Amino acid sequence: MYEKILLATDGSENAQRAADKAADFARELSSHVILVYIINTPPSQSRMVQANFDVHSLLEEDAKSDIKNTLDIFEQGGLAYTLKVAIGDPAAEIIGIAEKEKADLIVIGSRGLGTLKGVFLGSVSQKVTYHAKCPVLIVK
């Protein structure tokens, strides 16, 4: 039913609950999960210089630190996953990756660690739900 599940995560509590649900689906359905970690501001210039301007490796490093608990769920459970990282508007990036990867389902927390924590409650999940071309599961 859901061969490819996209899990949008930022390391927040709600994202962790979404990760648990995506892992349950992956276990039950033998699905492949695409873990998506988006930041909206690029790494500092000093970090980019230290990394020889390999921005992708910096993003992966940040993701592996920020979503360690999520990665542990999939690795310890022996669940198939791929990590995708990007810089930009989270909703637009999530939708773009879902379309490119032909995701059958998007799983996302109801709100995350946005810069204005709580002012725009669920704005990313609302945008994703409105614009996605596949079903979206919002986990509270």
How would you describe this structure in keywords?
single chain, alpha/beta, five-stranded parallel β-sheet, 140 residues, 46% helix, 6 helices, globular
Quick synopsis:
The protein contains 6 helices and 5 strands; from the N terminus they run E-H-E-H-H-H-E-H-E-H-E.
Walkthrough of the structure:
By secondary structure, the chain is an alpha/beta fold. The protein is built from six helices and five strands, in the order E-H-E-H-H-H-E-H-E-H-E. It has helices at residues 13-29, 45-50, 55-66, 68-76, 90-101, 123-131, and strands spanning 4-8, 32-39, 81-87, 105-109, 136-139. A five-stranded parallel β-sheet has the order 3-2-1-4-5, with helices on both faces. Helix 1 (13-29) runs parallel beside helix 4 and helix 5 (90-101) runs parallel beside helix 6 (123-131). The longest helix is centred in the first third of the chain and has 17 residues, at 13-29. The chain is globular, with a radius of gyration of 14 Å. Residues 115-121 have low confidence and may be disordered.
